[in-house]
Amino acid sequence: MGARDPLIERFRQNFGGGARLYRAPGRVNLIGEHTDYNDGFVLPAALQQCTWIAAAARPEPRLRVSSLRAGETLEFALDDPDPRPRRDWSDYVRGVAIMLQRDGYRLSGADMLIDSDVPVGSGLSSSAALEVATGYALLDGASQAIDLTRLALCCQRAENEFVGMRCGVMDQFASCRGAADRVLLLDCRSLEFRLSPVDPSVRLVICNSMVHHELAGSEYNRRREQCEDGVARLKTVLPTVRALRDVTAADLVRHGALLSELVLRRCRHVVTENDRVLRAAAALEAAEVGEVGRLMNASHVSMRDDYEISCREIDILVELAGRVDGVLGARMTGGGFGGCTINLVRVEAVDRFADAVGRAYKEATGITPQFLVCRPGAGAGVAN
Ligand code: GLA
After folding, report:
1. 30, 35, 36, 270, best to mutate for ligand 1 pocket (most atoms within 8 Å of CB)
2. Domain 202-374: assigned CATH number
3. Tens digits of per-residue pLDDT, 302-325?
4. Confidence of residue 86 (pLDDT cuts 50, 70, 90)
């Protein structure tokens, strides 16, 4: 479980007194995968699982950062003229400090002790939780007013420009702006958002496949390029198109010949997924949970066949879920190639679901999956 007071106590032992505690959650995405960097729509929820940071100011312009998970302490100068990524956990911390400063914030030096209970490499945004908790702690420590949307954008930039992962804004935004017992419909172009409750007759159940295939990072950036290729070609006949957000399914039918077969499938996933997100958000608000489930199932098929970001283990989990009475929908959540599924399950079927899927997945793969009944949690903030 997340360390709260024990983390402050540990900080006192390692660094001294005066620390404040900050937290930022991981997220699960109900529907809307790989739509964020296409200016589209997403429907995530913040998790209870968080990254926690105990932090206190120090006089010199340096960050001394200690990660309990990594068992490592590193130091960086805030005014390093040529910061280089180390290709490890600390890049998220350092990248955020750099981008906040580039955005015009004056930061103070700090000691930071970091702990987290967001599972790593499982598509639940442990990296966004680390970025946002870092940014929150640095801004608060320097007595700067915190604009959560600007913070999310700086964290995304850290990942894009310092870590080298061309992610969209969904994870950082959900970690900043998520709310207890709510899912968040986000327009990734305007950054307007709406929070909605989930019908009490259902639960969002996360199932961790416990696998993570290495190609995730490189394939992610490749998908982005394929989308950009699609936009560039469609623009030649549809000049108002700025992103796949502006393309309709009818446009793809009409002008599909301009695209390679592969790029056409990639674009079709994004265009149909955007439509599914909006329909799922409306269905959720109308308490039409059966419709939400059907849209989730269709989303998985689209990710599996058109976007090709699923994998054998995840497809097995989704298929097994579909056989359980009381499961309304199941799909992979997150960037792809492993990680977790998100399942919309009737309250009374949750135990049966975990039992049946857990057993059959173990039989099929030899792996014991982990289940997590998600109660959406609050966005980033001060924790003490
Ligand atoms: C990762 C990225 C997000 C988003 C998802 C896929 O989590 O960080 O920006 O693109 O993949 O929906």
Report:
1. 36
2. 3.30.70.890
3. 999 999 999 999 999 999 999 999
4. very high
